[in-house]
Amino acid sequence: MLNEPNPENIKIARPRFNIFVLNIAVKFKYLFVLLRYMTERIIIDPEILAGKPIIKGTRISVEFILELLSSGMNIKELLQEYPHLSRGDVLASLKYATGALRHEEVYPTAKIA
Question: 3 in a domain, yes or no?
């Protein structure tokens, strides 16, 4: 015969509705910011660079802008090298990357000695 659960030992979890709703609201705000920058300066077109985010009207990816800046090139040098870009394009790339990383979930792992 199967053991039936004792009703006194059953705990009913309280729903986390408020946290869930807050989490959804934050994600929608994040998506709204990304969409705003994507429509103004940054676009994703599956036909261009396999759908990577690019500066609108160019084939220059956000990733490429970040690589140039991280290699030590400043915005002034970048704009001299690529005169068809504007300071706003570079800043939109940084804003896009910031937004993309803002809600990245990182899970700690065990330390390796």
Answer: no
Q: How many domains does the chain have?
A: 1
**SS3 for 87?**
helix
pTM confidence score: 0.63
Which region holds residue 72: left if phi is over 0, alpha if psi is between -120 and 50, else beta? left
- Residue 27 is classified by DSSP as H
The number of CA neighbours under 13 Å toward the Cβ of 6 is: 2
- Six-digit token string for 34: 């990304």
CATH code assigned at 79: 1.10.10.10
**pLDDT tens figures, 1-27:** 455 555 555 444 444 444 554 555 556
CA atoms 69, 46, 104, 96: torsion sign: positive
Contacts of 100 (CB under 8 A, 6+ apart): 34
C-alpha neighbours within 13 Å on the C-beta side of residue 25: 6
Per residue in 42-76, pLDDT (tens digit) is 888 889 999 899 999 999 999 999 999 999 999 99
